[in-house]
Design goal:
Layout: H1 9-40, E1 46-48, E2 53-55, H2 63-74, E3 84-87, E4 92-95, H3 101-107, H4 109-112, E5 119-124, H5 127-142, H6 153-166, H7 169-174, H8 184-188, E6 189-190, E7 193-194, E8 198-201, H9 205-216, H10 243-252, H11 254-259
Parallel strand pairs: 2-5, 5-8
Antiparallel strand pairs: 1-2, 3-4, 6-7
């Protein structure tokens, strides 16, 4: 059985304008979504050709807070350094927002060369505190059913022990799932050569960032806000974690303790 639909010019015109209106709404909504995504997921490493600086992002060291200040006026890579990509020369996937300095050199050699020309700055954090914060990040990514804010102290310790038991030197360097645990010296040093002109500390973040702004002639009136919600993270300096885990942290991050003079 066949059904024949008779359409007048008026009905066809209505269909046409209805369709174009739908397309317009789709385009507008897509644009709004795109703006939201660009504002929510900002590049971690920022390169500014206008001010000639490179901000190397060290995971779990106020990167979100700093890039929200810097991206509005200074990022000249149009959000390029965000997301996972296949690095052909490395024969593996990398997260462009969390790269070692060696991966940066091999994957993006042209921008890497700017390290010698531009002012390079980065911030570091005590390895034990950073390790605990990285566990929070890891759980949010790969165990999304867990509400960190609802865990009792004993459950937190078990969670830390569980994740700590999974990692080793290879994983924190090359496994993309453990990218937030990457040793800090891998982001800043090539061998014994430091590629940063300025290394600030999380404990003195505001004053150190103000100093960077003075050096680069940036607007230094902005107060750094904490964007990662503390309710979604483990807190503390790690004084209460198991000695076995603490010893493992000292083993995995031995160079970080030495290079950045952490005790």
């Amino acid at each position: 059985m066949f059904f024949v639909v008779h359409c007048s010019r008026r009905s066809l015109s209505g269909l046409y304008f209805g369709f174009t209106a739908w397309v317009e709404r789709y385009v507008i909504q897509s644009h709004i979504l795109n703006v939201f995504i660009r504002n929510r997921f900002l590049p971690d490493m920022i390169i500014s050709d206008s001010k000639k600086f490179i901000f190397l992002h060290n995971p779990k060291v106020a990167g979100t807070s700093l890039r929200r200040i810097l991206i509005k006026h200074y990022d000249t890579r149009n959000n390029f350094y965000w997301g996972v990509c296949e690095a052909e020369r490395l024969n593996r996937k990398i997260d462009k927002a969390h790269m070692s300095i060696t991966d940066f050199r091999l994957a993006f050699p042209a921008d890497y060369e700017l390290l010698d020309e531009y002012f390079v700055f980065v911030f570091v954090r005590h390895p034990v505190e950073r390790f605990i914060s990285s566990i929070s990040e890891h759980i949010r990514h790969y165990q999304k059913n867990i509400d960190l804010s609802a865990l009792a102290p004993g459950q937190i310790q078990n969670m830390i022990s569980d994740v700590a038991g999974q990692i080793d030197m290879y994983k924190i360097r090359y496994n993309i799932q453990f990218r937030h645990f990457m040793p800090q010296h891998e982001i800043i040093f090539e061998g014994f050569k430091c590629r940063a002109d300025f290394i600030g500390h999380l404990n003195t973040l505001q004053s150190d960032f103000s100093r960077v702004c003075e050096i680069l002639d940036l607007d230094n009136e902005q107060t750094i806000k904490t964007w990662n919600r503390k309710s979604r993270q483990f807190s503390g300096n790690g004084d209460d974690i198991d000695k076995k885990i603490r010893d493992k942290i000292y083993f995995l991050y031995e160079k970080d303790f030495i290079y950045f003079n952490f005790k």
